[in-house]
């Protein structure tokens, strides 16, 4: 629906509550934040919340130049309030070298939670270095996907609540098939990043191609992002 063209005064609109795929664990013993460029935006809000709760945190913030760094004055004020928490890396002040995450993530600190938001290279390094950390202790957020998605092959999908079974053809997504079948589906990015189209899996094994679900969630095969993921089995049964 195009809201600005179709909605009129008095119309009733059904909406869903906002989703948070980058949730702050407020009771962690310590929080480690890693941000690159505009990725500081959600992390700044998290730090403000932890300050209010008087919880322990540290920030490692990278920007191409100091001039392009957001919230720099605010973080300088926090550092004056209690030193040793804010670590800023300006690429141009280090000969163009990017921030090295290995010293930050070399050892897991018990009771800590780790957060990262930034460019794809930083995210990939973060994932690699935190791969052995306890489940649920590493959190990340992407703004977009740079992973090529496959729409090869066809398979059957049963929309259980809708009472319909359809064939998802090559080049077509489950989301498109669901909409064509008349299912009421929430979606947004269509890249497997936002998590809006998360759908419960009743039967079958999804071919996960999203960037939202954790490794453990993928292995459980209890939910999937139907905007991008496909099927490893001839048939999927979804709770739609």
Task: Kindly report the average pLDDT value.
Answer: 91
Largest sheet: 5 strands, parallel
SS elements, strand count: 12
Distance between the termini: 20 Å
CATH superfamily of the largest domain: Nucleotide-binding domain of ferredoxin-NADP reductase (FNR) module
Instruction: Tell me what the CATH architecture of the largest domain is.
Output: 3-Layer(aba) Sandwich
Q: How much is the radius of gyration in Å?
A: 21 Å
Structural class based on helices, strands and sheet pairing = alpha/beta
What's the helix-strand series? HEHEHEHEHEEEHEEHEEE
Number of helices: 7
Q: What's the CATH class of the largest domain, please?
A: Alpha Beta
Shape: elongated
Please explain how this structure is put together.
- The chain has 240 residues and is of the alpha/beta class.
- The protein has 2 domains: 30-141, Rossmann fold; 155-238, Ubiquitin-like (UB roll), CATH 3.10.20.30.
- The chain has helices at residues 3-6, 40-53, 72-81, 102-105, 120-129, 174-180, 215-220; strands at 30-36, 57-63, 86-90, 112-117, 138-141, 155-159, 164-168, 198-203, 206-207, 223-225, 230-231, 235-238.
- The protein has a 5-stranded parallel β-sheet, with helices on both faces. Strands 7-6-12-8-10 form a 5-stranded mixed β-sheet. It has a two-stranded antiparallel sheet with strand order 9-11.
- The two termini are 20 Å apart.
- 29% of the residues are buried.
- The model has no long low-confidence stretch (mean pLDDT 91).
